[in-house]
UniProtKB/TrEMBL annotation:
SUPFAM superfamilies: NTF2-like (SSF54427)
Native source species: Paenibacillus monticola
Protein name, entry field: Nuclear transport factor 2 family protein
Residue intervals of the SnoaL-like domain: 9-111
Lineage: Bacteria, Bacillati, Bacillota, Bacilli, Bacillales
Source species, domain of life: Bacteria
InterPro entries (alphabetical): NTF2-like_dom_sf (IPR032710), SnoaL-like (IPR037401)
């Protein structure tokens, strides 16, 4: 059984799977940091640009497979998800799995680190 997701984390996946660009970025704090593929995106404008290219243009679809609440950091939730979409999958594993490390404070995502699982 999956651990229940906090509202901002659930909305992140819902608004990616059922594209809603405005609601997607509204989950992030104004000073949020997103780390993907070793690159940092800081603030709403950069996160919005990242999501337009890497989530919405690629038409990503997430299937959550595991949710873990970090026992050492109660504000961190780790979500493992199978990812599919409209992008070149040549040389990528099937299924394509990513870990999403969310830090949520005061009902907003303040940090998200996305890690490719090999």
């Amino acid at each position: 059984m999956l651990t229940k997701l906090s509202q901002p984390v659930a909305t992140y996946f819902d608004t990616a799977n059922h594209p809603d660009k405005v609601a997607f970025v509204s989950n992030f704090s104004d000073h949020a940091v997103l780390v993907d593929d070793g690159r940092e995106y800081k603030g709403i404008a950069e996160i919005q640009e990242w999501s337009n290219v890497n989530v919405f243009a690629a038409q990503l679809k997430y299937e959550i497979t595991k949710v873990v609440q970090n026992i050492e950091r109660s504000d961190e939730t780790i979500v493992t998800a199978k990812v599919d979409g409209n992008f070149d999958k040549t040389g990528l594993p099937d299924p394509l799995m990513f870990e999403h490390h969310f830090t949520v404070e005061k009902g907003e995502i303040v940090r998200l680190t996305i890690r490719f699982l090999v």
